[in-house]
């Protein structure tokens, strides 16, 4: 019997006051739409973004923030070369990788969290 039916969201951490930088990166660079947080969670800070498939990426404020350098979400794009070129044009460095036969790039959000993007 399968108890888990899917993935709802991923939570990444950020320092207090990082909402403008999160919006610039996740909405401005990655093109994700911001979604409102429930009213009872707004006082905590942070910002949420919707993925096209209905899942979400949440950025939550964490005291004594430390970026995630290994653990990361893996996002999909339609054209990896175009995505990497878009990042380069915006001054956001990416690192290409094809380990395991999967072409992908790695980049970091404004807080240093690792993000993987692969084509598919």
From TrEMBL:
This is Glyoxalase. Residues 6-120 form the VOC domain. It comes from the Bacteria. The lineage of its organism: Bacteria, Thermotogati, Deinococcota, Deinococci, Deinococcales. SUPFAM superfamilies: Glyoxalase/Bleomycin resistance protein/Dihydroxybiphenyl dioxygenase.
């Amino acid at each position: 019997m399968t108890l888990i039916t899917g993935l709802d969201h991923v939570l990444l951490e950020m320092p207090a006051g990082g909402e403008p930088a999160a919006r610039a990166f996740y909405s401005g660079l990655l093109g994700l739409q911001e979604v409102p947080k429930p009213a009872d969670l707004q006082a905590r800070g942070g910002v949420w973004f919707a993925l096209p498939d209905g899942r979400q990426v949440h950025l939550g404020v964490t005291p004594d923030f430390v970026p995630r350098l290994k653990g990361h979400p893996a996002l999909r794009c339609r054209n990896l070369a175009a995505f990497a070129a878009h990042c380069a044009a915006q001054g956001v460095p990416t690192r290409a990788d094809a380990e395991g036969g999967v072409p992908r790039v790695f980049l970091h959000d404004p807080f240093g969290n690792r993000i993987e993007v692969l084509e598919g």
